[in-house]
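Why should sequence recovery work at all? Because a backbone constrains its sequence more than one might expect. Tight turns favour small or flexible residues, buried strands favour hydrophobic ones, and helices have their own preferences. The token representation captures these environments compactly. In the example below, the structure is given first.
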């Protein structure tokens, strides 16, 4: 049997099929949107990815450093201008959270630098987070409010930001609700 290129079955495929396969692989790799992210580094001994960049970013100071705590720098850049800044930010926050989790601590953000639009000509969405890993707050430290509903709201905030697990929240909630 002869195929549409005039070749018999069992012979090499038509050259146009090879090019089509190459085109599909190229398009898929471009759409995959791989991002670049260097490893998390100590902030004191590392350089910001925005230093000397053609396209600068906007830095927002979030908190003051804690004396004696080491600060770290996490950076993420989208592979294209079609990646949202929020998704890049989420990736950086996940990296920082994982870094601190391995130390048994929680993230405390100090500063964030974001790329400014337009995201064209190599100015892809970028986020750099300077943070420190601090000890998890003790449950007793949030027992300040007298009203048990305020304490429950504080506990819920800790669950939402990942400081407490759902199991820890349920245990503390039961203790608070059991109080007169």
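From this structural description, the recovered sequence reads:
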């Amino acid at each position: 049997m002869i195929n549409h290129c005039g070749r018999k079955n069992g012979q090499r495929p038509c050259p146009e099929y090879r090019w089509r396969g190459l085109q599909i692989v190229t398009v898929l790799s471009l759409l995959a949107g791989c991002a670049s992210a260097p490893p998390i580094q100590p902030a004191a001994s590392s350089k910001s990815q925005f230093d000397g960049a053609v396209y600068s970013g906007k830095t927002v100071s979030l908190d003051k450093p804690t004396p004696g705590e080491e600060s770290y720098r996490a950076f993420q850049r989208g592979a294209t201008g079609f990646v949202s800044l929020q998704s890049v930010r989420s990736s950086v926050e996940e990296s920082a959270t994982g870094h601190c989790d391995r130390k048994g601590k929680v993230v405390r953000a100090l500063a964030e630098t974001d790329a400014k639009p337009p995201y064209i000509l190599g100015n892809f969405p970028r986020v750099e987070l300077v943070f420190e890993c601090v000890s998890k707050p003790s449950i007793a430290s949030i027992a300040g409010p007298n009203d048990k509903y305020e304490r429950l709201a504080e506990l819920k905030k800790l669950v939402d930001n990942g400081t407490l697990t759902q199991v820890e929240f349920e245990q503390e909630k039961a203790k608070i609700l059991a109080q007169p």
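A few observations help interpret the result. The two ends are 88 Å apart (CA to CA).
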